[in-house]
Specification:
Immunoglobulin-like, disordered N terminus
């Protein structure tokens, strides 16, 4: 039955597809290594004791500055969905979806993967048609208890096969042919906390423990997430309230300069007290495996149970770029994911918090359906996403990969756009209003993924008392700018143009307005605004929201 491969071990179609994309395969050795060096440089932030101050501990534009926690300008839990948290699990490197969710009884799968295919005796059944490898069996109870869903074959049009670029596409929620400098979570949080740089909230809006500061949290005003490069760094903060040690520095001028920078960095880390209190007020109530991912998820569980208040967490597990010896490496990685998630969910449940958490895996792309000459797979298109949550049920969404009718590179056509997964999570889990979701994703709101999550109930209101949705060139008047905002409650509204130092220049709107969405069109020249940097500010309901504007 499985006899269609050549004596060399490769499927007949494999050869025409393996040498195909710049830097996507080991056979393009120089290009591949060059791409990985660039990818590694971007992610490797923890070079010295000063790296975190420059990148991974930045919120807004206020790097290396001391802050006192301010009041929440806009509560992140104002929606009717309650105190919900999103946990993102990044499978860095490009996860092989075909060996994650197995096509049971599919002859073509075994024909094209004569050595890498997971055999039927080595599977546990998701359904009659699909299974998972036995080394992921820790997830079986979650599946059987209705706490896990599979989204098949997730991707995007005109897929890019560079780790660097595709990671940015997934983070920014952009099309493959556009460059967007902000991330979808960053835009959401900036919309929620539009003056967070001036009056930061008492808890970090988002927190990531992993290898890098990811674009996913980047907003116009800076990074909205607190990033901690590794668990040891986190423990230093949680136990001592400081990241950098000052006691080992002497009186010499270089040490005095380093002491000054480290002192400012420690002071800039304004969330040390809230993190320490949350971490120490809870404990882990599950046996986690001895892996890096498990350690990071154990920290996240403890912070959630300790009521830190962050709305989004992200953890990363690296190593999924399995060009060679995949049978040795990929099972270990997937076992770590399965065992870590299972322990994480047990821990949350023991603390009575699992009903408030949704977890979702993602990767920058999938792998080729064909084996390469190094007993691995190369950069491919779509891959499954796994979603975990109490009460979401179990089941499948999208269409499984078609291994026969493929594109010019021999890859299956994707069936689900990853941004539909994002929009469904934003609307049904985080309870954002469709107008806000459209602004966050910077694209027309699609249909989402039907049945992935229970619909939010009641229908989601505007989650802010006011939402300053942004600005764009006015279509009806060349040279003019349109500023869009929404208000949840009727009241007095003031919209102003200001200098970056806070000096008021022009009042655009100052009137009583009913609940709803509004757009104000203005031509900078008519307000005598010279080219330069400005701020537009919305004041209503006792709150202030502002964004930067370049004229």
């Amino acid at each position: 039955m499985h006899d269609h491969h050549t004596p060399s071990g490769k499927h007949p179609k494999a050869a025409q597809h393996l040498r195909r994309r710049y830097g996507a395969s080991m056979e393009q050795q120089a290009e591949h290594e060059q791409a990985h060096r660039a990818f590694g440089r971007r992610d490797f932030l923890k070079l010295t004791g000063l790296a975190a101050a420059g990148g991974s501990m930045m919120l807004g534009s206020n790097t290396l500055r001391a802050f006192a926690p301010g009041a929440l300008l806009s509560q992140l839990a104002l929606s009717d969905c309650g105190d919900r948290t999103l946990v993102l699990i990044r499978l860095k490197g490009g996860n092989d979806g075909l060996n994650t969710v197995i096509l049971r009884g599919n002859d073509e799968y075994y024909n094209i993967r004569p050595t890498l295919a997971v055999q039927e005796p080595d599977l546990w059944a998701l359904s009659q048609d699909f299974g998972m490898p036995n080394y992921m069996q820790a997830l079986q109870p979650l599946w059987e208890e209705g706490k896990m869903r599979v989204i098949h074959n997730v991707g995007y049009p005109d897929a890019n096969y560079s780790h660097f670029r595709s990671s940015d596409i997934w983070a920014s929620a952009s099309d493959s042919n556009e460059l967007v400098a902000t991330g979808w979570i960053g835009r959401w949080l900036e919309n929620e906390l539009q003056a967070f740089a001036a009056t930061p909230p008492a808890a970090p809006p988002a927190l990531q423990i992993g290898v890098e500061t990811n674009m996913i949290f980047r907003a116009v005003g800076g990074n909205t997430a607190l990033s901690i490069s590794n668990p040891q760094e986190f423990y230093q903060i949680a136990l001592s309230g400081q990241l950098y040690n000052l006691s080992n520095l002497g009186p010499e001028p270089p040490d005095r300069e380093l002491a000054f920078v480290r002192t400012v960095s420690n002071n800039a880390f304004r969330y040390s007290e809230s993190i320490r209190d949350a971490y120490n007020s809870a404990s882990n109530q599950a046996d986690y495996p001895d892996t890096g991912l498990a350690e990071r998820l154990a920290i996240v569980a403890r912070l959630i149970k300790g009521k830190l208040g962050s709305k989004v967490y992200m953890v990363t597990i690296d190593g999924f770029d399995t060009h060679a010896d995949q049978a040795l490496n990929h099972p270990r990685l997937l076992a770590s994911v399965a065992n870590s998630v299972a322990a994480f969910w047990q821990d949350l449940g023991a603390g009575g918090q699992s009903q408030n958490v949704l977890a979702m895996t993602f990767s920058e792309f999938g792998r080729t359906i064909y084996e390469n000459g190094s007993l691995g797979t190369d950069h491919g298109t779509g891959a499954p996403m796994l979603v975990f949550g109490d009460g979401i049920g179990n089941g499948f969404h999208g269409t499984a990969p078609d291994l026969v009718n493929t594109d010019q590179y021999g890859d299956p056509f994707y069936s689900v756009d990853f941004r539909d997964a994002y929009s469904t999570v934003l609307q049904n889990w985080l309870c954002l209003h469709p107008d806000v979701i459209q602004t966050v994703l910077q694209r027309p709101l699609g249909n989402g993924i039907a049945g992935l999550l229970p619909p939010s109930s009641p229908p989601p209101p505007l989650n802010n008392p006011a939402a300053l949705l942004g600005h764009h060139p006015a279509e009806s008047e060349p040279g003019a700018i349109s500023i869009k905002y929404s208000i949840q409650s009727r009241g007095q509204v003031r919209l102003s143009i200001m200098l970056p130092n806070g000096s008021a220049l022009r009042t655009l709107v100052d009137e009583f307005q009913e609940r709803g969405s509004y757009t104000f069109h203005f031509r900078p020249s008519r307000f005598f605004l010279a080219p330069g940097e400005y701020v537009y500010r919305l004041e209503t309901g006792g709150r202030i929201y502002q964004r930067n504007l370049k004229v």
